[in-house]
Amino acid sequence: MATTERDYYEVLGVARDADDAEIKRAFRRLARELHPDVSEAADAELRFREVVEAYEVLSNRERRELYDRFGHAGLRSGGFQPTTFDFGDLSDLFSAFFGDDLFGVAGRAGRGRGADIAARVEIELTDAARGTTREVPFQVAVPCERCGGDGAEPGTTIGACPTCGGTGRLRQVSRSVFGEFVRTQTCPACSGSGRWIEHPCEQCDGAGRVLEERTLEIQIPAGIHDGQRIRLSGEGHAGLLGGRAGDVYVEVRVKSDERFVREGDDVYCTVDLTLPQAALGATVAVSTLDGEVELAFEPGTQPGSVRVLRGRGFPVLRGFGRGDLRVMVNVLVPRQLTDEQRRLLEEFEHVSTDDTYRADESFFEKLKSAFR
Ligand SMILES: [Zn+2]
Ligand SMILES: [Zn+2]
């Protein structure tokens, strides 16, 4: 399916009689501007696809003729399908198409930023509330000390790659949806570095990097949510040939706690009162994120009623204050009665009236009746 019904000339911003060079120039300019890796605009990806589609049509003589005479419908009946592509492959697509690198990042012979590392830690819910530190072990590629990262045995020399003559790239002419073009490929023999190592370093086997076990202590801020990631800048794998190191992303998983349920910065828990405790009033211990507290419940406390402890919830991450703790009352109804207990409850029921279960007038109701 076509992604757009807009006029292709309009999409590229060119005149109907624009020649191939003008069309290519317009496409190149728009692609630079709208590339989703570069553009901040929310609809960049959609517009980018439109632009690619428009270019696919207008840069091909037959398709362009078909479009000029019959419009979008003509292309559809002619069986035209815009290329679908994955944005991850775009730099490849561009270097293939333009014969160079559109954004000036990928081309520098093998000298690249190191890869990122993903790690994961699991913490208790109460630790998430307080904030904590954790040691996170991971394997990281670091520059080899023996060769200083260049991969050659010390004292030996590095020559130019014989396959690419030291340029790190190979040129190749081929055809694609964009027509015929010159493809510039990273040299497979030297992985684009242009270097030829005759005597690889004994320590790293020519890789220039070795794996090292490393442990980092990470600070987990109070209030962190399950699944949030902490970035440790520059702690990832070493770059190639002196390139910048990648980052470490530590994903924090917060274990569920059978006592608490978190919702945003608020926390819910329950407290069990026995039937007499609820009826007579009682002081009982309640779990909070900061340990147990004693809470007094009034006579006649109802099941499902909620006590709000302000500021006893989760700290607001990178903010001020804390959420609330909401304690919901559960009343335990006896399940196994002895003969005596049964007798007492039956007696109690016998002497109960509607008044026994009547709700107290609320403060507001009392106020109203005072003015009646
Ligand atoms: Zn080495
Ligand atoms: Zn090469």
Tell me what the structure shows.
Helix content is 25%, strand content 27%. It has 9 helices and 15 strands. A 4-stranded mixed beta sheet has the order 10-11-15-14. Strands 1-9-8 form a 3-stranded mixed beta sheet. The site of one zinc ion has 8 residues, from loops.
Element layout with pairings:
Elements (H helix, E strand, L loop, with lengths): L7 H5 L7 H15 L9 H15 L2 H17 L12 H9 L18 E7 L1 H6 L1 E12 L14 E3 L8 E8 L2 E8 L8 E3 L11 E12 L8 E4 L15 E7 L6 E3 L2 E9 H6 L1 E7 L2 E7 L8 E4 L15 E8 L6 H13 L11 H8 L2
Helix pairs in contact: 2-3
Bound molecules: zinc ion (2 copies).
- The helix-strand sequence is HHHHHEHEEEEEEEEEEHEEEEHH
Class by helix and strand content? alpha+beta
Shape: elongated
The DSSP helix count reads 9
Compute the average pLDDT.
82
Strands of the widest sheet, in order across it, are: 10-11-15-14
Radius of gyration: 35 Å
Question: Could you give a short description of this structure?
Answer:
The protein has 372 residues and is of the alpha+beta class. It has helices spanning 8-12, 20-34, 44-58, 61-77, 90-98, 125-130, 275-280, 339-351, 363-370; strands at residues 117-123, 132-143, 158-160, 169-176, 179-186, 195-197, 209-220, 229-232, 248-254, 261-263, 266-274, 282-288, 291-297, 306-309, 325-332. Helix 2 runs antiparallel to helix 3.
Key attributes of the depicted protein:
372 residues; alpha+beta; four-stranded mixed sheet; 15 strands; binds zinc ion
